[in-house]
Specification:
The complex is a heterodimer of chains A (448) and B (136). Chain A has twelve helices and 21 strands. Chain A has an eight-stranded antiparallel beta sheet with strand order 13-19-18-17-16-15-14-21, with helices on both faces. Chain A has a four-stranded antiparallel beta sheet with strand order 6-5-4-7, with no helix packed on it. In chain A, strand 1 and strand 2 form a beta hairpin. Chain A starts with 21 loop residues before the first strand and ends with a helix. Chain B has 136 residues and is mainly beta. In chain B, the strands form two sheets. Chain B has a seven-stranded antiparallel beta sheet, with no helix packed on it. Chain B has a three-stranded antiparallel beta sheet with strand order 6-7-8, with no helix packed on it. The chains are: A alpha+beta (448), B mainly beta (136). At the A-B interface, loops of A face strand 5 of B.
């Protein structure tokens, strides 16, 4: 709907047209895209092995030897700070038998050691030691050719480290495109930037990754799915009070919503403490400040699988509304199972008191123990399960809310921007891009 | 690998030149070879230390590069740690200390005195290990 559509089409194994799965003119999405293994393989080939995917944040690496283990297109990856203070990313696999070298989530190490036969690699990926080296001759053990396999491209934007397996990928900056305007509002607004607080929370959900991603631009489920939170008084009582704001299609499948709070300066500028807002002019453009000023909370998804929540809410009925920034990566394990890796970020310049309150607000509302997360996971797991039924799949899903609306002309930020946060137009842009990636990828495969 | 210079084990002088001082960075192990035996040298707090470059645990060659933040030599394979000063074991799984050699700076060169104590780093070492284990 918002990007030029691909003219060609391909057939799935059962003869179904790929283009028939997403209809942005009528707002219909085929249910099978949330459980079909054939489509999942196409997604891995043409989305996850090609896109820039979020891997880590620079603040996770303070000292030489600090490492984290992550996943890129379903393959294990280790990132480690080498002796030259450079953050390197490698396939987390020994060149000998393929064993996963590093099996903890994070830590500090001097060498990456294989637990199987002991082959050991330096922090720069070079093969240092081989067990019983005297039993090889040099021509059959060329150590300089047996270093760890690097992630093809690694680039950083405002502290966010992304990687891709595609040597022909555009630059990260080009890939993020107009979404950078909005990302800056979250991680580039203060002088010292943002940092991760604590460590990642990780859990698995029996939900398709796209449902998790699209829920990150869904402002209309709050009063139903999170009804208990409304009853606690943590959300406004009138279901339509949150319909204001905007939906944004920033291009490239990147989407978000921007929602204002009550008419009170306390809720402007994402509800941040005023001393942090004072740093905005030095770091954000006038247009970015204008968008931030009208925004109390914002949730979105950087295509394909990095969602962010900037939510201002009470962590409990006794504490004032407090904003937190949460990044979450949806790592698909199969068509119907997703590993979730969730991080809390805070501006480095924030006070200790705000940092603590912001983190506590997150853990009470989101993450595995959060009241909102319970509601979301229950709904998205059930959607995945029911949508896998063959009878159910005869009938497409409905994504037509606010489909009649035209994008606004005078919004200060880039992208296609709709005049409400109650709508499904941004989600349709995500699905259109998803479909285009599969169609374009298949075209390249055939041409090759 | 530094070539042995004018002073060598071939004459009566036990001191062997193994590197130029300028080649050594503080706290960074350099591997050199004396009579086909790998030894490690490192400069720390202005002093030079030399040690057998083979871990006493699994006889893995120690690696060049920085000492750990704790100032110790660490085996890249199983993580045994040794003091560069006296070769003492500081972390399992090794139980035997590293053989260490006298070392000093002489006219800008690093010289090492191995005094015939070069450790066998080959099949003889395996035979010796079996003998030691079976007589325990």
């Amino acid at each position: 709907m918002t990007e030029p559509s691909i003219s060609r089409d391909i057939c799935l194994n059962d003869g179904t047209s790929l283009k028939s799965l997403v209809n942005t003119d009528t707002g219909r999405i085929a249910r099978r895209i949330f459980s079909d293994p054939e489509l999942f393989e196409l997604e891995k080939a043409h989305i996850f092995r090609k896109a820039w995917c979020f891997l880590a944040h620079e603040s996770e690496f303070s000292d030489v030897g600090d490492f984290v283990t992550r996943s890129l297109a379903g393959e294990p990856v280790v990132l480690i700070k080498d002796d030259q203070d450079q953050i390197r990313a490698f396939l987390n696999s020994c060149r000998h038998r393929g064993m996963r070298l590093c099996r903890t989530d994070d830590g500090n190490t001097s060498y990456l050691r294989c637990p199987y036969h002991g082959w050991s690699y330096g922090k720069d990926g070079t093969l240092v030691s081989v067990f019983a080296e005297g039993f090889y001759v040099e021509k059959f053990l060329k150590k300089d050719e047996l270093g760890l396999i690097p992630v093809t491209k690694v680039e950083t934007y405002k502290g966010l480290i992304f990687g891709t397996w595609d040597e022909n990928a555009p630059s990260l900056s080009e890939f993020l495109g107009d979404m950078k305007f909005y990302i800056d509002m979250f991680v580039g607004r203060t002088n010292a930037g943002a940092e991760i607080v604590g460590t990642a929370q990780i859990w698995d959900s029996n939900a398709n990754w796209k449902l998790l991603a699209e829920n990150s631009c869904d402002n209309q489920h709050l009063h139903t799915a999170h009804g208990s939170v409304v009853q606690l008084g943590l959300l406004p009582p009138d279901p339509l009070m949150l319909a204001g704001g905007n939906l944004v299609d920033a291009g490239g499948g990147h989407i978000l919503h921007l929602v204002p709070g009550p008419p009170d300066p306390f809720f402007e500028d994402l509800g941040l403490p005023f001393e942090l807002r004072a740093e905005f002019p030095a770091n954000l453009s006038e247009a970015q400040r204008s968008v931030a000023k009208r925004t109390s909370f914002s949730v979105g998804n950087v295509f394909p699988n990095l969602s962010f929540l900037h939510v201002m809410i009470q962590g409990d009925p006794e504490t004032p509304p407090t904003p937190f920034l949460n990044f979450r990566v949806w790592e698909p394990l199969s068509a119907t199972k997703t590993r979730i890796r969730s991080f809390v970020l805070v501006d480095r310049g924030a006070s200790a008191e705000f940092r603590k309150r912001s983190f506590e607000t997150y853990v009470r509302t989101f993450g595995p123990g959060g009241i909102f997360e319970q509601d979301d996971m229950e709904n998205l797991e059930e959607c995945t399960k029911v949508n896998s039924g063959l009878i159910a799949q005869r009938y497409p899903l409905h994504h037509a809310m606010s489909l009649h609306m035209e994008p606004v002309k005078d919004f200060p930020g880039p992208g296609n921007v709709w005049p409400t946060s109650f709508g499904e137009t941004a989600q349709l842009a995500f699905y259109q891009h998803w479909q285009d990636c599969l169609l374009t990828g298949e075209q390249l495969e055939l041409a090759a | 690998m530094h070539q042995v210079g004018l002073m060598s084990l071939e004459n009566d002088n036990p001191w062997v030149e193994v590197a130029d001082e300028a080649q050594l960075e503080d706290n960074k192990i350099k591997l050199v070879r004396v009579k086909d035996v790998k030894i490690g040298i490192v400069k720390r707090h202005g002093r030079i230390f030399a040690f057998s470059a083979m871990c006493t645990h699994a006889r893995i060659f120690l690696a060049p590069g920085r000492l750990g933040a704790d100032g110790l030599i660490e085996c890249p394979m199983h993580g045994a740690k040794f003091s560069p000063e006296d070769g003492a074991v500081r972390c399992a799984p090794a139980t035997e200390p590293l053989l260490v050699y006298d070392a000093k700076i002489l006219s800008g060169k690093i010289v090492v005195n191995c005094e015939g104590r070069l450790q066998a780093q080959s099949k003889e070492a395996v035979a010796s290990a079996w003998a030691k284990w079976t007589t325990q």
